[in-house]
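Researcher: Next entry in the queue.
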Amino acid sequence: MRAGKKNKTNTTGTVYTYFGECITSDTMGPFESSLVHRYKYAVCFYDCATCYPIVYFLRGKDAKSVLRALKMFMHDFKDELKHCKTPGVVDTWHCDNGTEFTAHEVNDFCIHLGTKRTFSPPHCLDRNAHAERTWYTLLGPMRIMIAHAGYNELKAMLWPFLMMYACDIHCALPSTSLNGLSPHEALYGQPADLTRFRVMFCDCFATLRRVDKPSKLSSAPTKCIFLGINQKKHGYRVYIPSLNRITTLDWDVTFKEDRFTALANDVDPAELLLRCRAPTSNVNFLPNANRFRAPLLWKGGACRSAAAALAARGATLRDKVVWCTAARRRSV
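Model: Structure for this entry, 332 residues:
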């Protein structure tokens, strides 16, 4: 620990000294159903020692989804949880009294691992202040980023990318609660690389793989739209209009941060929702994304004809996504 750094304390005077000693959680939603994976809720895990927030996304506000997120959190940060009483397991987990947190299956899992559970009184938001504050910290930058890029319905359906990017920015910036250190530095011992951050939804240009180019005469740099940073794959997450695909590229990307492309003019939402689950797509922006993969439905021309019929009768963006979602559910 650096000289002069004070340990994080809460309103009760408890001093927290290591990651995982006390984790607070809360859920947020419902949001508009996301374009990728149809998420409608988010759950945060806030570490009281390092002020480091982590968010995961849920399809429903239920105990099964929250439990899955808790397991993924412990899996993703098992190395950082090595100082806990049981290495790899959270010492104390503090939540509100939502049924998604108080369910028997969640309690049984925590008892099995030896995780202590604490709850805030009903309707007392200040007793779960760290988690509640996390949403205020993230939602503000999300609104600013989407307004700066030009708000539209399709960008609003990409809210998980906005939330993850806002979380990355928050973790990289200094905090007065940590005496000028950033949450990233408090957790990993070194500051984050701020040169990686760019303007959300701005235009960028990158060189694609040979198999992704339409022809050998295609221009070397391909236009993309920036969707944040993929911390797991150490690259930029982008949307490629020419391929109608969301993927991760390496750091060799050229940005035009003052230019923005209207996504509504380039994206077929029904096709993108399916292409993101194709075996060739690497849109695993969540650790558990593979669990929600489904077979690609674009077989023959039936689905394309249905999408064309929807467009011909003036179907809205929401109609296309609803139709696509229903088709996927029938195929599973």
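Model: The longest helix spans residues 129-149.
Researcher: Noted, moving on.
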